[in-house]
Amino acid sequence: SVYLSAGGINDLERADQEYAERLVRLVRHGKGAGKFHLLAFDRHYHPDGTIDQEHTEFYVPNTYVYSVAQKDPDIFVPVISVHPYRKDAVEALEKWAAKGVRLIKWLPNAMGIDPSNPLCDKFYAAMRRLDMVLLTHAGEEKAVEAEADQLLGNPLHLRRPLDQGTKIIVAHCASRGQNPDLETEGQPLVDNFDLFLRLMDEPKYDGLLFGDISALTLVQRMGKPLAGLLEREDLHHRLVDGSDY
Q: Which string of DSSP letters, residue by residue, matches the chain?
């Protein structure tokens, strides 16, 4: 009820429309400048390219996000979401790139995506060819059902696309939870934020790897991640603003 009220929704039959209208009012009456990126959210897929409906908690189609953004193009930018295991993944990238879309949204823990899986290599190649950027969650996920696949949020899984030259923005700077250190003997549990910083500290990833600072001032993330990033002024030029609204 709190979320419905905050979203300006009074009629569930018109929930999508009322939410979009509320968002437009907030943006147009706010004091901020710049455009706001609206995120699509793809379904969960099996490695064979078929939809896993059982583990798809919600689905926000690319066509819907694009249509909302097109109504107010002076304030909104559409961000598509394409699961790399889809049989039409590359074709989908080409379709939306032709419409001017540059960003792709992933939440591996909730979508069942292993960024280090060789199945993704064709997807990464297409992204580089089309000059697209991956905005992907890393670290622990609590807002969307993901308990079965929390290991997929390990920031170290992003080495494979980075080594292939893929541009990546890590949402929330991987500022929550722990994962096995896949690069240390015994694979001890390490804070996801520290694994993210390990990647950021590698000179070869400067210009490829960025961090999104959304939600870093929430009480769950305010400790070491927020303080650590404030101190790391050498990384500030690689931090991207985000609201997580």
A: -HHHHHTT---GGGHHHHHHHHHHHHHHTSS--S-EEEEPBPPPB-TTS-B-GGG----B-HHHHHHHHHHSTTTEEEEB---TTSTTHHHHHHHHHTTT--EEEE-HHHHT--TTSGGGHHHHHHHHHTT-EEEEE-S---SSS-GGGGGGG-GGGGHHHHHTT-EEEEEGGG-S-EEE-TTSTT--EEEHHHHHHHHHT-GGGTTTEEEE-TTTTSTTTTTHHHHHHHH-GGGGGGEE-----
Q: What is the pTM of this model?
A: 0.95
Q: Determine contact, residues 69/103, Cβ cutoff 8 Å.
A: no
On whether the CB atoms of residues 65 and 104 are closer than 8 A, the answer is no
Tens of pLDDT along the chain (245 residues) come to 998 999 999 999 999 999 999 999 999 998 877 899 999 999 999 999 999 999 999 999 999 999 999 999 999 999 999 999 999 999 999 999 999 999 999 999 999 999 999 999 999 999 999 999 999 999 988 677 656 688 999 999 999 999 999 999 999 999 999 999 999 999 999 999 999 999 999 999 999 999 999 999 888 777 899 999 999 999 999 999 998 88
